[in-house]
Amino acid sequence: MHRQLPGNLYSSQGAAYGPHVLLVDDDLEESRPLVEALSRRNFRVSAACDGLHGYGRATTSMPDLVLLEAEMAGMSGLAVCRRLKANPRTAAIPVIFLSTRAELEHRLAGLSTGAVDYIIKPCAPAEVIARIDIHLELARGYRRDDLAEAVQNLSAADVLVRSTQRYLSDRLRDTPSAELLAQALGTTEKRLVRAFRECLGLTVFEYVRHERMRMAKRLLAQTSLSVGQISAEMGFSSAANFSTAFREHTGVSPSVFRKNSSLSHMPALSAGLTQADDGQGDPADALPA
């Protein structure tokens, strides 16, 4: 079992504290040199030994920056970061990952959750602090306190749904199974299903189907991609299956929807030409300079 440092680790100098850094790591003893270095710089450091407590501490204490171990038992650091970025109260807090996993795929996975940096362990405390200084300086342009007061506080279910939506936004083509999805969000299938029912009145599968159809309608109306290309982009096994699902969702086939969408833009274009030629101005005024 990992030894743990106290949950609140304050500057040892007793002076007015500087920025508040939250450290979330399941091996806090390993981070003692970093904590001591931060203390000497007069940072106020608080700590959590797992992802669930780390997320809770972040939402209640609103630290200036979060140092987050990427891989922890239970709720992983990736899942914590997804929730922090989905919650308007904590979305602007910079998150820096600390991890022993140096592979490119792991670094990209961490950054894709919204983290501002990914540092490979073991690392020199001086380097970590230098990066903290940079990201705190960049973050000073955001007034998180004003933002936190302006936005509506979200329930735990709302945050879970928002983080799931963000996670699925670029995975509509290859949607993970319910088990893998729940694991990526640091929750259980049962809680995930309950959150979607409570917040959207849909199952996760129904939400994915709705988003695929919404994206398909946008592609049909705004691009020249073929029906076959769009069906592949949306993860359907064939254009026929896509057409059937699209008709069930909208009541018309993809080709009819595209035709109707193109026709719906014609009156606006005609109105623009009429206005330019109605005697109220020079027709050339309607053309770009």
Automatic annotation (TrEMBL):
All copies of domain HTH araC/xylS-type, residue ranges: 162-260
UniProt entry keywords in alphabetical sequence: DNA-binding, Phosphoprotein, Transcription, Transcription regulation, Two-component regulatory system
Source species of the chain: Candidimonas nitroreducens
Protein name per the record: DNA-binding response regulator
Keyword Transport in record: no
GO terms of molecular function: DNA-binding transcription factor activity; phosphorelay response regulator activity; transcription cis-regulatory region binding
Record-linked SMART domains: HTH_ARAC, REC
PROSITE patterns assigned to the protein according to its UniProt record, in alphabetical order: HTH_ARAC_FAMILY_1, HTH_ARAC_FAMILY_2, RESPONSE_REGULATORY
Annotated ranges, domain Response regulatory: 20-136
Superkingdom assignment: Bacteria
Gene Ontology CC: cytosol; protein-DNA complex
